[in-house]
Design brief:
Elements (H helix, E strand, L loop, with lengths): L2 H4 L2 E7 L7 H11 L4 E7 H4 L6 H10 L4 E4 L13 E2 L1 H6 L4 E5 L2 E5 L2 H12 L7 E5 L3 H12 L4 E5 L3 H14 L4 E3 L4 H7 L2 E4 L23 E4 L8 H8 L4 E2 L2 H16 L5 H12 L1
Parallel strand pairs: 1-2, 1-3, 4-6, 7-8, 7-10, 8-9, 10-11, 11-12
Antiparallel strand pairs: 3-5, 5-6
Helix pairs in contact: 2-11, 2-12, 6-7, 6-11, 11-12
Keywords: Amino-acid biosynthesis, Aromatic amino acid biosynthesis, Oxidoreductase
Pfam family, one: Shikimate_dh_N
Organism: Phyllobacterium zundukense
Length: 286
Amino acid sequence: MSETLLKPIKAGLIGAGIQASLTPAMHMKEGRAQGLSYEYDLIDLNQLVASIDDLPRLLSEAEERGFSGLNITHPCKQAVMPHLDELSADADSIGAVNTVVLKDGRRYGHNTDWWGFAQSFRRGLPGVDTSFVVQLGAGGAGVATAYAALSLGVAKLAVFDRERQRAIALSRSMQQIFPDAQIIAEGDLMEAMQQASGLIHATPTGMSGYPGLPLPADMLDRRHWVAEIVYFPLETELLRQARQRGCPTLDGGGMAVFQAVGAFQLFTGLQPDANRMLDHFKSMTA
């Protein structure tokens, strides 16, 4: 057995209200399957009565404990960036970090959220029309899904958010990265949906505690495909309504799994079995 496999792996997740996260279970089960001694801790700001101001201390403590890396979630994905030594190109472009590798006294920031969405999309909605896509949500998750969608070849992306300026900021930043695409943050949602081939939903609406629909159900038509990022529950009201209308759909589970696949590889240097991690996720959410 190689030295890599003998070395215990310690990792963790920093965020607020993360006690229900399935990320630790996904990492540790895949670690065991790979022959690793793998520990994964939750570093919950709510449980610690801490805030983003405590990130420097939490990062230092993780280094002192010999962590190989940390996943980062709300509300720390942008706040953690000034405390890192180096950013990957995609993390820098997106302006958010969800994975930090701790190695040789340095902190390397990555973003596997966008890759997770892209991988899930390729598997779950192969061959769909991506000529014109509407996206709801321009927050941290929305930036990652927009980056993924444009990387996958979406020709025209219309972004809508309750905070109009946030949608405008996203469209401008993505336009710089993808100059050949048409990215807009103005206009009428109903009109955009009438022209669009697909919908990406990147807001919390539909999560446990945030029930409901992010747009009127009558805007959905069977010509639309619908991609969701929410995975608690997997069957959101949006997906239920879309399926009733005959729309191809993608739940948020794949993005959750594939961002973990990417982080596992960064933490361990080993290639995880994505299908095995998907099966484990499905067993936990059945």
